[in-house]
Amino acid sequence: MHPSIFKAYDIRGIYPTEINEDAAYAIGRATVEHLAPRCIGVGRDIRESSPSLFASFTQGVMDAGCDVIDLGIITTPMVYFAAGRLDIDAAISLTASHNPPEYNGMKIALRGAIPVGENSGLREIRDIALAGNFHPSDQKGTMAAEDIRPAYYGYFASFADFREKHFTVVIDTANAMGVYELPIYEQFPENLTVVNLYNDLDHPFQCHEANPLKLDTLDELREKVKDAHTDLGIAYDGDADRIGFVDENGEIIPMDLVTGLLAKIILSKRPGATILYDLRSSRAVKEIIEENGGIALECKVGHANIKRQMREDGAIFAGELSGHYYFEENSFAEAGTLPAILLLNLMTETGQKISELVHTLRRYAHSGEINSEVADKEGVLAKLKTAYADGAQHELDGLKVDYPDWWFNVRPSNTEPLLRLNLEAKTPEMMEEKKEELLAIIRG
């Protein structure tokens, strides 16, 4: 077992050199020793290594005296759904998300889909697994199976309010776990025509990377949307906990602006609700939440941070620049297809095309995230703090400085010698000018 497989929010590495059956067994034992659960639910993705890692992990869990519910091959949002609906103390998604097929890993959550990350138990699980000195158990756990997919499909299909309309959508799952989300769309044969693109589990992962955050992975989806004259393009990541969108003209919809659109339809049903947006998001997101009567709160980056703050602040929805969207309806966790359902609802309610809806949020020029390799991250942050002392400074996550016409945020990576810059300005010209100014300091 390679210690580097334990990340800030999950476990992930190359099979079998970094993570293998022995490692999976040890992690299973360590998970039970630290969390002391009575019963754990375990779902897995379609990677070639998943069956054997599942068998080893669950054997470790049962040898530690804990029962297992085999959730089968399901998406990560389905695992979170199980964590909120079943009588289990923890739930594990055996997946490496958008990483190539030679990777595998695990995402661990407690009952209610509360994440287990580096600062909430994963470090202790790592230390126990690496030491390998497991306590003997007087009894063995048992295994049973539960298929939560029918309940998941029925529940999230119930949010559809577009039954008086007909839409044509292109869906690209990159031959990965998003295929298991498709039955939700299939429940509306009179209202939805689905054009499939890379939705083939006979050839898993054998196409572009399953990562809508990398914009070049959306090239074929953009062309298909235009060629087929469809209303919306939808792209899932590898384990279907992230989703990206393309408008009817083949233009990519920025993921932070999707947060604003979703907030608009959510607030029409839940007026006055609290909604979180990550601090890299466009100012337009905060504005649209408040214009629609909601309470907009900024939050740190990272699913563990966001899920915790949602509970603390009573938020019913949160959106992240990376395409993670979190809903009270799925225990404050990601709900793979619900964002698509809600966008179709918004198009139905307003009678507008998706591009027209997005246009109302394209108020500023955003840089996107720019990474710079920096050895002395703290030193550079100190320089920025001094150089921009006349702005309104916040240190919720890295350094954010606000001015009337522009803002920037610089965050250090948790795992790499990188600083991540996001900035936004009133005009493209100002954005470019400030970007060069900031990069000169960061890379100087």
What's the helix and strand layout?
Layout: E1 11-14, H1 21-35, E2 39-44, H2 50-63, E3 67-73, H3 76-85, E4 90-94, E5 103-110, E6 114-115, H4 118-131, E7 143-145, H5 149-157, E8 167-172, H6 182-185, E9 192-197, H7 219-227, E10 232-236, E11 243-246, E12 252-253, H8 255-269, E13 274-278, H9 283-291, E14 295-299, H10 303-313, E15 315-319, E16 325-327, E17 333-334, H11 338-350, H12 354-359, E18 365-366, E19 370-373, H13 377-387, E20 392-394, E21 399-402, E22 406-412, E23 418-425, H14 428-442
Parallel strand pairs: 2-3, 2-4, 3-7, 8-9, 8-10, 13-14, 13-15
Antiparallel strand pairs: 1-5, 4-5, 5-6, 10-11, 11-12, 15-16, 16-17, 18-23, 19-23, 20-21, 21-22, 22-23
Write a brief caption for the model:
Helix content is 35%, strand content 24%.
Tally of distinct domains: 3
Radius of gyration: 22 Å
CATH class of the largest domain: Alpha Beta
Structural class: alpha/beta
Strand content: 15-25%
Please, what is the CATH homologous superfamily of the largest domain? Alpha-D-Glucose-1,6-Bisphosphate, subunit A, domain 3
- Count the DSSP helices: 14
**Biggest sheet features:** 7 strands, mixed
The N- to C-terminal Cα distance equals: 38 Å
Q: Using the alpha-carbon principal axes, give the shape.
A: globular
Mean pLDDT: 97
CATH architecture title of the largest domain: 3-Layer(aba) Sandwich
The helix fraction, in percent, is 25-40%
Q: Uncertain runs with pLDDT below 50, 5 residues or more?
A: none
> How many E-type strands?
23
